[in-house]
Specification:
Structural class: mainly beta
CATH superfamily of one domain: Immunoglobulins
Mean pLDDT: 87
Number of strands: 44
InterPro entries: 6-blade_b-propeller_TolB-like, Ig-like_fold, Quinoprot_gluc/sorb_DH_b-prop
Helix content: under 10%
């Protein structure tokens, strides 16, 4: 379960924790206090998937998934091999696995990521586009990115369409491909480095096309010779004089700013978006990986041409080094607006300030804000989540609960599928121009697959990299990449089979089932012991407690504390009754206040719990009994039995007073100890001292004790303990002339 709200915890590391080499950690302790319960305040998603590994896909490094117009699933491996599967429409399982080796037969092993079917493609005339680079994720060549078109029977015909796209020395490259509503191809092109300037880790400067979303106009591409070489210059003098028409710079390198250029910059400063999604609402969403710590940002150069056609004339931006780690973002691109900037600096495009300025890079002057063309983010994933593969869910499963929402793979932090809901999942009539307020398309609700409010079947993956949907069934297919080749995890394709309408009711679990309390009559309430009661939700949805009642003849001898902290205004919750006699009064008062006070209910999230206290405050001695009843929707009645032993302190007693001196519960223990011995005592030779308790066992009624074989007029102390070892009553007795009492 989750940690309890408003509770102090201690975190302890001992030297028993060891590194892989066997070295002990330095002992460490820290305390922290949890906040109040935080919830989304919205109805949980009523969705559920069942995870099924696909046989034959284990220990393979897949990079992209897509359904073809023939209804088959295509899985691209990082090496460039494509696997094609037939899909069973009944259970979603894959069969008839076929390898398509067109790319590797021509180029050898590759690093292939993007996979997209051409809108003109049909079941009998497949046209598939793939982005690929040289094999390996270290020491890669600089301009190494390519886009190929596969067609013909079994996709056996390959044509190299684009070559010399930028590539980092590591794993940033030409990533995923997606076709937009205008028929153009959109490419998520990774950055060459960490934060825009050369650094010791990436050891590569940016280029004119790196760290961006690119647009490829297939009509213009069809009018040029293939492959189109898009290598760009790093000479600012040449860039600043870029022709407005020709696709070639004066030095014959590629010009993305010419009107004849097939490949252009659609969004600038998108650091490393693995995937991109054109949504039904008309917006382009890109989950992007932020920089790790240690990156460098460039110094500004006045007069540099920018992606929107202007020239930099902003404030002087100093270079910075070893910048702190950056957040991961979901960016949204509005096609009605001119090209914008999304936070990753690039000195060859006149962009120098990372993200929001000083907020995200404290090495900058404190008054420095974001670039004037910075468009902001639709959602903040925060640090180290590595959001990668993404789709818009389109089927009507779960009564449409997921339809129109974005599903994003969180590769590292989370290891799950996150559900993001735009404020509008359709085109808004209020957004008609570049000047319209378009924030309605930003994310208004986020539901993680993992965590206490997580979704069934959408967490616990080994580095989920990409995702696709069978829109006919609503089933999902996930790539588990297992980046570090963990021996306990498996790289594979996993089917997430959409369950029938999920029953996501909470399930009530209460503990303990029995509380045995003991107190001395007259003890102030502040000094009485609190006994914890926990109500846990072990179901799949939110648990709603309909009533929580303290009942029984002796209910007035007990008190429930802390329940009010968990109540939220909503449907009715019956009043806690302190005794049967007070129920009528409480009901009358509740009815009287109903018009003025909103009713309240207790809600418990999935995999969470609440804890409150019960105190025993007896008004008279004896055994007291009551119950706490917990009623919740679609759950059996749950009860906690309360038994209290109320005792009184009694003064020195003689043997004549002993007959009604003790009362105990069946779980208590009685011990005897000698306090003092009178000089004239007489012990019975050879006989051991004895203490007798009767009736034994006792069912809760009064018990009697007898002492034998003690000294004459010997002082004896008899002590009663409860099951926890707590003293509940102590008597001082004096034996008679025969050593008995």
């Amino acid at each position: 379960y989750a940690l309890e709200p408003k509770t102090v915890y201690k975190f302890v590391i001992t030297d028993g924790v060891k590194s892989y080499s066997g070295a002990s950690f330095i002992p460490y302790e820290a305390t922290f206090t949890t906040s109040e319960v935080l919830t989304s305040g919205q109805t949980p998603l009523n969705v559920e998937f069942t995870k099924v590994p696909i046989p034959g896909t284990q220990q393979k490094k897949y990079s992209s998934l897509a359904f073809g117009p023939d209804g088959k699933l295509y899985a691209l491996r990082l090496s460039g091999i494509i696997e094609r599967f037939t899909v069973n429409p009944m259970d979603g399982m894959l069969s008839e696995q076929q390898e398509i080796r067109t790319l590797v037969n021509k180029y050898g092993n590759r690093t292939a990521v993007g996979l997209a079917f051409d809108p003109a493609s049909t079941a009998t005339n497949l046209i598939l586009w793939i982005s690929h680079s040289s094999a390996g994720l270290e020491y890669a060549p600089e301009f190494d990115g390519n886009i190929s078109q596969l067609s013909g029977p079994d996709l056996s015909i390959e044509k190299l369409a684009i070559t010399k796209l930028p590539r980092s020395s590591k794993d940033h490259m030409a990533n995923s491909l997606a076709f937009g509503p205008d028929g153009a191809m959109y490419i998520s092109q990774g950055s060459n480095g960490s934060m825009g300037d050369y650094d010791g880790s990436w050891q590569r400067i940016e280029s004119l096309l790196s760290g961006a979303a690119l647009r490829l106009d297939l009509q213009k591409l069809s009018r040029v010779t293939w492959p189109l070489d898009v290598r760009t210059t790093t000479d600012l003098t040449v860039i600043n004089k870029a022709p407005t028409v020709s696709m070639r710079m004066p030095d014959n390198t590629y010009n993305p700013y010419g009107s004849e250029s097939p490949l252009t910059i659609y969004a600038s400063g998108v650091r490393n978006a693995y995937d991109l999604v054109w949504h039904t609402n008309g917006q382009l969403y890109l989950p992007a990986n932020g920089s790790a710590a240690g990156g460098n940002t460039p110094a500004s150069v006045a007069g540099t041409r920018r992606a929107d056609g202007t020239f930099y004339n902003g404030p002087v931006v100093p270079p910075t080094t070893s910048v702190q780690v950056q957040n991961d973002w979901l960016f949204r691109i509005n096609p009605l607006k001119k090209v914008g900037f999304y936070g990753h600096p690039n000195p060859f495009r006149g962009e120098y300030v990372a993200n929001r300025g000083y907020i995200d890079n404290v090495k900058l002057p404190a008054n420095m804000g974001a670039d004037i063309n910075y468009r902001g983010a639709a959602y903040n994933f925060e640090l180290n989540k590595s959001p990668n593969g993404a789709i818009e869910y389109k089927s009507d499963n779960f009564a449409g609960a997921l339809k129109g929402k974005l599903l994003v793979c969180r590769f590292s932090g989370g290891g799950d599928i996150m559900v993001l809901e735009p404020g509008s999942i359709v085109r808004s009539s209020q957004v008609t121009s570049a000047s319209s307020n378009d924030q309605i398309y930003d994310i208004t609700k986020a539901t993680p697959g993992a965590g206490t409010e997580g979704l069934v079947g959408m967490s616990g993956f080994a580095n989920p990299l990409d995702i696709t949907e069978d829109v006919n069934t609503g089933n999902l297919y996930i790539i588990e990449f297992n980046w570090n080749n963990s021996a306990t995890r498996t790289a594979q394709i996993t089917l997430l089979r959409a369950s029938e309408q999920a029953t996501l009711d909470g399930i009530t679990s209460v503990y303990p089932a029995l509380i045995s309390a003991s107190e001395v009559v007259g003890t102030p309430e502040s000094a009485t012991k609190n006994y914890a009661v926990t109500i846990a939700n072990t179901g799949k949805g939110t648990l709603k407690i309909e009533s929580l009642d303290l009942i029984g003849t002796d209910a007035g001898e007990f008190k429930v504390k802390g329940v009010e902290d968990y109540k939220t205004e909503e449907a009715s919750l019956s009043t806690l009754s302190l005794s049967a006699a007070k129920e009528a009064k409480a009901a009358k008062e509740a009815k009287k206040d109903k018009k003025d006070k909103p009713n309240k209910v207790i809600k418990i999230r999935k995999n969470s719990s609440i804890t409150f206290n019960v105190a025993f405050i007896p008004s008279s001695k004896g055994v007291k009994k009551a119950k706490i009843q917990v009623k919740s929707s679609k759950n059996p009645l749950k009860e906690i039995e309360l038994i209290g032993l109320a005792t009184v302190y009694e003064e020195f007693e003689t043997a004549a007073q002993k007959s009604d001196s003790l009362q105990e519960d069946t779980t208590n223990n009685i011990t005897v100890s000698r306090v003092a011995t009178a000089p004239e005592r007489r012990e019975t030779s050879g006989l051991a001292r004895t203490l007798q308790v009767y009736p034994n066992p006792s069912s809760g009624e009064r018990v009697q004790i007898a002492l034998n074989n003690f000294g004459q007029q010997e002082k004896v102390q008899v002590t009663m303990h409860d099951v926890s070892g707590r003293v509940v009553q102590t008597l001082q007795l004096v034996t008679d002339q025969n050593g008995a009492a």
